[in-house]
Specification:
globular; single chain; alpha/beta; 21 helices
Length: 527
């Protein structure tokens, strides 16, 4: 059936398995909205394109399916570029479709509505790729290219822009789907190279990043068979659970370098070992380092390593199939690991007094299957180092790009994706105000969503950093609104617990409410 291309794209996305679109309509992209209802898609109206992008990110992290957003030319695309940068850093499958000026009008500088000098290039700075569809055939090709890349390559955001005249033009239906086969098996000689590292090893150590989260069960079995100790990055939390030789997500602890130096072989799987994983210049290894990653670009930045380009899930299966070569002999001692972890917890408590008791109370009040979205806030920095996770993909944090305002809209996207599964957001008083307008989306959709608002009345992390650098703290104290009244003005429920027991009850109540609940927690609640 022939329709305007904007409508055909919605039908194509529905046919390719997309269920939800996040976005904001405007005169430049209204043709993309012509087919949304007809195609059977659900559209979520954000209050700002940044919110739409974070919702798409949160939806993708919760479901494993691409988060899709529709935005307008110029400012709409600029507003969503921050979430695109976050999705790039954290390997999140996000597809952004925007309108753009007609080809004859681009780059002329006539002051047209929403005009940019180089819209495609601007988005390309924060996306895996950014391309222009000049006709229906190229639009269909680019949509399928993006969805295929999400399946067979490292997942990162893509941007497709379509000129207004092309969106409006009649177009034939999209092509039928074709089968996609990916995940090539690991060759035996590559698996043998990794297994040979265990010969004679007395202290093998694994480090898991988010790239290994889809094969957690197999990796747990491999680690146990090898008698290995382990760490995870923040993105890899939950890959290892209930293992007495697991050091947790404590790579950022300065003492982790000394632990890693004791290992005679270190196998790093699906992790960049980036600055935001380590917060130091080097890993600290003295023994052999083997890095396993599907992205070859990530295998070239650590000296003295063995580089293995392979899919983490396929490698796990191959190692488990040959597990008889994993001796299980180890000199790691569970009591030493427990003592080290206890010492690191004490360090965190000393660095950020009053946070860990609140985190413990919050964890005790939440169902085990709760999905958590956190913002750039000191509460999250402390809690995600000590809060144990029994499986991956349950705590989502804006690592890498490190943007403020992530938690609330991302949690909304996540809640839309997982339905009845409990979801909460954790935000600081400053970052919450970046995207607080998205609270109305949660109210509008009647989402059961507790929002933990941690208020220390300042940019606490920045103040601490200035003090460490011997800079007089400047511009780190702000005047806050009455958050409880603000939430109520939006139509949300709100509470202000005065004790840890009150906090637990407030969370349990919020999980039974229709609609969101802001739970306002002052930073001295446990002091």
């Amino acid at each position: 059936m022939e329709r305007p291309l904007g409508a055909q794209i919605s039908h194509m996305l529905k046919d390719r398995g997309v269920e939800v679109i996040f976005g904001i309509p405007g005169v430049h992209n209204q043709e993309m909205y012509r087919g949304i209802e007809e195609a059977g898609l659900t559209h979520v109206l954000a209050r700002h394109e940044q919110g739409a992008g974070f919702m798409a990110d949160g939806y993708a992290r919760a479901t494993g399916r691409p988060g899709v957003a529709y935005v307008i030319t110029g400012p709409g695309l600029c507003n969503i570029m921050t979430p695109m940068g976050q999705a790039y850093s954290d390997s999140v499958p996000m597809l952004v479709l925007s309108s753009c000026l007609n080809l004859a009008d681009q780059g002329i500088g006539r002051g047209r509505l929403h005009e940019m000098k180089d819209q495609e290039g601007a988005a390309g700075a924060v996306a895996d790729w950014s391309l222009t569809a000049r006709d229906a055939e190229s639009a269909y090709h680019l949509v399928d290219r993006a969805l295929t890349d999400f399946m067979v390559k490292r997942q990162r955001p893509k941007h497709i822009q379509i000129p207004i005249e092309v969106l409006e033009a009649p177009a034939s239906a999209h092509p039928e789907r074709t089968a996609i086969v990916g995940g090539a098996a690991v060759q035996p000689d590559v698996a043998e190279l990794v297994l040979d590292a265990f010969i004679g090893a007395r202290k093998p150590l694994f480090i898991f990043g988010g790239g290994a989260k889809d094969s957690a069960d197999v990796w747990r079995a491999v680690v146990a068979a090898a008698g290995a100790a382990s760490f995870t990055t923040y993105a890899g939390r939950g890959i290892i659970a209930d293992d007495p030789l697991h050091f947790g997500s404590s790579l950022a602890r300065p003492g982790s370098a000394k632990v890693i130096a004791k290992a005679d072989v270190v196998i790093a799987v699906g992790t960049e070992l980036s600055e935001t994983d380590l917060w130091r210049n080097d890993l600290g290894h003295q023994g052999r380092l083997i890095r396993i990653d599907r992205d070859p670009a990530e295998l070239n930045d650590t000296p003295g390593q063995t580089r293995v380009e392979a899919d983490a899930a396929q490698m796990a299966k191959e190692l488990w199939r040959r597990r008889e070569k994993l001796s299980g002999k180890t000199e790691w001692r569970a009591e030493d690991v427990a003592q080290t972890c206890a010492a690191w917890r004490a360090e965190i408590h000393a660095e950020r007094p009053g946070i860990l008791p609140v985190a413990d109370a919050l964890r005790a009040a939440l169902p085990a299957e709760t999905m958590i979205y956190s913002d750039m806030t000191q509460f999250a920095y402390a809690a995600k180092e000590v809060w144990p996770m029994d499986r991956p993909g349950r705590w989502h944090h804006p690592c890498g790009f490190g943007t403020l305002g992530y938690a609330l809209p991302a949690a909304i996207g996540g809640k839309i994706g997982v339905g009845d599964q409990p979801v909460i957001a954790i935000a600081g008083d400053y970052g919450f105000q970046y995207t607080l307008q998205e609270l109305m989306v949660a109210v509008e959709l009647e989402l059961t969503l507790p929002i933990i608002l941690w208020d220390n009345g300042k940019l606490g992390e920045i103040e601490d950093s200035m003090v460490r650098a011997q800079i007089a703290p400047n511009a780190v104290i702000q005047k806050n609104p009455d958050f409880v009244k603000l939430a109520e003005a939006y139509g949300a429920a709100a509470s202000h617990p005065k004790s840890l027991d009150d906090l637990g009850e407030a969370v349990k109540t919020a999980l039974t409410q229709t609609g969101p609940t802001l739970i306002y927690v002052q930073s001295d609640i446990a002091l």
